[in-house]
Automatic annotation (TrEMBL):
Its EC number is 3.4.21.75. InterPro entries: EGF_Tenascin. The keyword Glycoprotein applies. Pfam families: EGF_Tenascin. This is Leishmanolysin family protein, putative. GO terms for molecular function: serine-type endopeptidase activity. Keywords: Disulfide bond, Glycoprotein, Hydrolase. Residues 105-129 form the Tenascin EGF-like domain. It comes from the Eukaryota.
Amino acid sequence: MQEKKNTDKLSNYSTQSKCFKSTATKSSSTNQYPDVFRCHQFQCSSDASQITVIFPEIDLQVAYRKGEQNMQKNIDTNGEKANGQITCPQDYERFCNYIIIYPNFCSQKGVCVNGQCICQDRFGGVDCSIKCSGVVDNYNCSKGQCPQNKFLNTDNTCKSDCPSGSFDDAGKCESCDNNCSRCKGPSANECTR
C-alpha cells in the first residue's frame, strides 16, 4: 500500500533525492494526496545555475534555471505522464552544496539533513546505531539529560556545541530557519548569517 502510494506520488528516496514542495502524481493515479511535499531525484549543474528534477519512472524531467527560484511549474504541461506542480528551491547554491552521503545511511534509524542524522526516538549516535531511550554521551546511553556544558544534538548525542544551522535552546539544539546558515535563537528566524 505504502509502496503504491509512493509510486503514485512519483517519490524517490535515493541518495540523489531531496524533498520539494510538490503535488506530483502519476496521471494514471485515481487517488488524491493532500500532502504537498515529495522527495524527488534531482541534479544540479556544476555551477549551481540549474536544478533538474528527474522523474525516472515516467521518463520526464523539469528544469529550473537561475531567475526561477521559488517558482511553481507544472510537472507535465500536457498531463500525459504526470499531474501536479513542483516549486523550485529559493537558494540554488545552498540546495546544491548539500549533496552529502550520510554516515552509514543513518543505520536506517533516521534521516539525513545537511549531512547530519536526525534519529528516530530511542536511537542515537552519529549514525543512529545506538539503541537508547535516553541520551548518548561518549558512545554510552544514559538516562536523563546531557551533562552541564553539553547540548543535545539532533542525532540524540550530547556534544560541546550545536552544529551549523542550529542554535542552543535550553540545552537542546534546534534548527534555524531555512534561510539561515547560522542563527542565535531563541526563535529559529533570528539569522546571524
